[in-house]
Design brief:
Length: 484
């Protein structure tokens, strides 16, 4: 019976209540769909467990990772016991991380703790990978649940490993140097002195600026006692002052006397803030030799600092770019593409996506080898890079497939850009032994339209247009048409 068929007294009120119930039901479904979309948009692997450890919900990234790693779908999806999965990993793989995870989840379900995290390696035959599992207990409508989130921390781990290796190398260099080197932190506390520094002073005092008076020294030219705040180390940390080769007569901790060259170099972070200092001492019994050794020590310190910066910069760059072509990688494309998509939505400006890939690329690999295939991919990437605008975002989407985001560009202008790339790709030739090798591409174009809620909708249409171009004979570009 519909609400409009009620004619008894109070019928209008009943109809209104039924309409409200219907609205609440629709609203609940909309909220549920929104929650699903949010979960599926995240690049972390997410599952929700009930109070028994049974999986009640997973996102698409969870499913994708399980499939890629050869896991049985049913063992990792809704209805499966995640506790049983961990128990199986303990028994079969002797996985200590699984044991820690199992114990932690049991404590969560017993209310002994609210959350816990564990980092673990998950290497494949082809790459090193690390993840962090964050598991949190929460309540919903009186029931207890666990949110299990596995996030990829490979880039961070690789950067940490590289930094640790660089620090180990730096410490080894410091210990091998024939000059005394002291390291100060940002508070002016002496935190490290290498072996040579302790030989020069016949010991060490790990003190802060207020206790620098424990180091006895006199200016060589005047014979005046050096006050605690006058030491080069104190001036470096308080004023950011660099001092080089100050000649000082010192009283060592064993009572002996030496003349040294005393240098202090403040260290700064990327923002220019003082972050510590390096102090260099050199016994100048043989003055010329001492001056050369100080120069080498300073050069070594500078080189190691540059190496640390280069390691960090390289790791950050690798997280954004494709190793083979040097283009943006898929993840970075989505970071930039979503921003451009949001701007187009907000201001109603044109925005288009071009997807293209090489025709018969497998045949190239089969006939000429993967090295030649890589050469072709790099050549196509270069051609495309030279023909997109600075404002466009070009990326390697995966395999032989590429993608371009074109802000403030409609479909027909994007088609012209795709045609320009296609023509130049078709025109190039590559020598492969006795053969002259050529390649072609097919491209699909799609423009943002009202109702596009996410970038994924636009990419999907461009992909459909790409396959329409393939089906139409390849070596062509095509705009998305709903009827094709």
């Amino acid at each position: 019976m519909s609400a409009h068929s009620i004619s008894a007294p109070g019928g209008k009120k009943t109809a209104r209540l039924l309409d409200e119930d219907s609205w609440r039901g629709r609203n609940s479904r909309v909220k549920q769909a929104f929650a699903n979309d949010v979960l599926n948009s995240l690049d972390a692997q997410i599952a929700v467990l009930d109070a028994h450890g049974t999986i009640v919900k997973v996102n698409e990234e969870w499913k994708r990772f399980a499939r890629e790693n050869g896991s049985d779908d049913e063992a990792f999806y809704v209805g499966a016991s995640y506790l049983a999965v961990c128990e199986n990993a303990i028994v079969q793989a002797k996985d200590p991380t699984a044991a820690m995870t199992l114990d932690g989840m049991r404590e969560l379900l017993q209310g002994k703790r609210n959350s816990f995290s564990v980092e673990y390696p998950c290497h494949s035959p082809h790459q090193q990978r690390w993840f962090i599992a964050n598991i949190t207990r929460f309540s919903h409508q009186g029931a207890t649940y666990l949110a299990v989130v596995h996030a990829d921390i490979t880039a961070r781990k690789l950067a940490e490993n590289a930094l640790r290796d660089a620090e180990t190398t730096l410490r080894g260099v410091l210990e091998a140097l024939p000059v005394g080197v002291w390291i100060m932190n940002r508070n002016g506390q002496i935190v490290h002195g290498n072996a040579a520094s302790q030989r020069i002073w016949a010991g060490a005092r790990y003190v802060g600026p207020e206790q620098f008076g424990e180091y006895k020294g006199w200016w060589l030219d005047s014979g005046r006692l050096i006050a605690a705040e006058e030491w080069a180390a104190a001036r470096a940390i308080s004023k950011g002052e660099t001092s080089i080769d100050e000649e000082v007569r010192i009283q060592c901790f064993d009572g002996s006397s030496k003349i040294i060259l005393n240098s202090a170099i403040p260290l700064r972070d990327d923002a220019g803030n003082l972050n510590g200092a390096v102090i260099v001492n050199q016994d100048i019994t043989l003055r010329k030799r001492a001056e050369e050794d100080v120069r080498k020590a300073n050069a070594s310190a500078d080189a190691m600092n540059r190496e640390l910066q280069q390691v960090l910069a390289r790791e950050q760059r690798n997280a954004r770019t494709d190793d083979l072509t040097g283009l943006n990688n898929r993840r970075h494309f989505f970071e930039l593409g979503k921003q451009l998509f949001a701007v187009a939505q907000r201001y109603g400006t044109p925005f288009s996506i071009v997807m293209f890939d090489l025709d018969y690329f497998k045949r190239i690999n089969d006939l000429y080898g993967h090295q030649m295939g890589d050469t072709i991919l790099k050549r196509v990437a270069t051609i495309a890079q030279e023909r997109v605008r600075h404002a466009d975002v070009l990326a390697r989407y995966g395999g032989e497939e590429f993608i371009v985001a074109l802000p403030n560009v409609g479909a027909h202008e994007a088609l012209a850009a795709a045609e320009n790339i296609r023509r130049h790709v078709a025109a190039f030739r590559e020598i492969a032994g006795d053969s002259e090798l050529s390649a072609t591409i097919s491209a699909g174009v799609a423009e943002i339209v009202p109702g596009d809620d996410t970038l994924d909708y636009l990419i999907k249409r461009a992909d459909q247009a790409l396959y329409a171009a393939k089906n139409a004979g390849r070596n062509r570009c095509q705009i998305f048409s709903p009827g094709r």
